[in-house]
Amino acid sequence: MARFLEKDKERNVTVFGKNTTFRGVLKFAEELQIAGTFEGSIESGGTLVIRKGSACTVDHIHAGSITVEGAVTGDLAAADRIEMKTGSTVKGNVSALRLRIADGVSFEGSVEMVTTDDPVDIFTMRTDLLKTRLQNSDGE
């Protein structure tokens, strides 16, 4: 249990609760979880989680990684991965290095799989993104 708490202290997670409504342009650095309603645009190099029961209407979302458990209308782009979990709804185009769509997902849009041959700069990249990138280079 103590190990779990220590790990959480290292992460900087922001949560918009189910009673939160946000309209506008949102930028964040590490991790954001949306459980309420969002309208606008999101720009981040971090992790975005759109929780079950949430509703997002966006011009676009650009993030390091995106996990959708709720509903999103608009275009999604991730530097690393997009994951659509069972029961989620996505209406829009997606672009990512990796894509996972579970059974039971409602998806309307096009998919663009991007590739990268960019060198990894271990001195400036966030450690969690570096770790993910290095793990994926092993063919995972």
Question: Describe it for me?
Answer:
- The chain has 140 residues and is mainly β.
- The chain has helices at 2-10, 127-136; strands at residues 13-16, 21-28, 31-34, 37-44, 47-50, 55-68, 71-84, 89-91, 94-96, 98-101, 106-108, 111-113.
- It has one domain (2-136).
- Strands 1, 2, 3, 4, 5, 6, 7, 8, 9, 10, 11 and 12 form a 12-stranded parallel β-sheet that branches.
Key attributes of the depicted protein:
140 residues; globular; 12 strands; mainly beta; twelve-stranded parallel β-sheet; single chain; 2 helices
Helix content: 10-25%
Q: What proportion of the residues form beta strands (DSSP E)?
A: over 45%
Shape: globular
What is the total domain count? 1
Produce the secondary structure layout.
Elements: H1 2-10, E1 13-16, E2 21-28, E3 31-34, E4 37-44, E5 47-50, E6 55-68, E7 71-84, E8 89-91, E9 94-96, E10 98-101, E11 106-108, E12 111-113, H2 127-136
Parallel strand pairs: 1-3, 2-4, 3-5, 4-6, 5-6, 6-7, 7-8, 7-9, 7-10, 8-11, 9-12
